[in-house]
Structures are given as C-alpha cells and as structure tokens.
C-alpha cells in the first residue's frame, strides 16, 4: 500500500528572493550601525558631535531600516501563504 503523493511545493519566485535578501541585508546593516553607535559612544565620541559627518546616516539606518525590514518580512510571509494556498487549491 502506497502513501498518497504529496503535491510539489510551488516554485519560489524572483520577487520572493529579492524581498528575502533585501530584508536580510537591511536588518544586518541596521544592527551593525546600531552597534557602531553604541561603540562610538562608549569609546568617548560622546564629546564629539554626532550631528556631523557620516553619523546622521549611521543613526538613520537603524531608525528606518529595521521597521522597513520587518514590513518586507511580513509582505514575504503573506505572499508565501497566498502562493501556497493557491497551489493547494489547484491540486
């Protein structure tokens, strides 16, 4: 007696991969910038001006990057659930 065949998973689209890798890269960059700010403050850069140079960009990456990465991951999950639901309905 053989087991019923399980339908094959639907193929992963290019937009899914782009969203996944972009969210991963953005989250990693945000965490790195977050630790750069912590290390810069601990080393004694608090006496210097964090408002000049590259520091405003370094401070903005975690501020905007982490919520954007979270939104991308949620969009990726929704797209994946919809894709798998449609594939299950077809079979």
Structural notes for this entry:
The protein is mainly alpha-helical. 73% of the residues lie in helices and 0% in strands. The protein is built from 2 helices and no strands. α1 packs antiparallel against α2. The model has no long low-confidence stretch (mean pLDDT 87). Keywords: Membrane, Transmembrane, Transmembrane helix. The chain crosses the membrane at residues 21-45, 57-82. It comes from Microbacterium pseudoresistens. This is ABC-type antimicrobial peptide transport system permease subunit.
Sheet-strand content, in percent, reads under 5%
Q: Shape, please?
A: rod-shaped
**Rounded average pLDDT:** 87
Distance between the termini: 22 Å
Cα radius of gyration in angstroms: 21 Å
User: Uncertain segments of ≥5 residues (pLDDT<50)?
Assistant: none
What order do the helices and strands follow?
Answer: HH
The secondary structure category is: mainly alpha
Number of domains: 1
Protein name: ABC-type antimicrobial peptide transport system permease subunit
Keywords: Membrane, Transmembrane, Transmembrane helix
Transmembrane segments: 21-45, 57-82
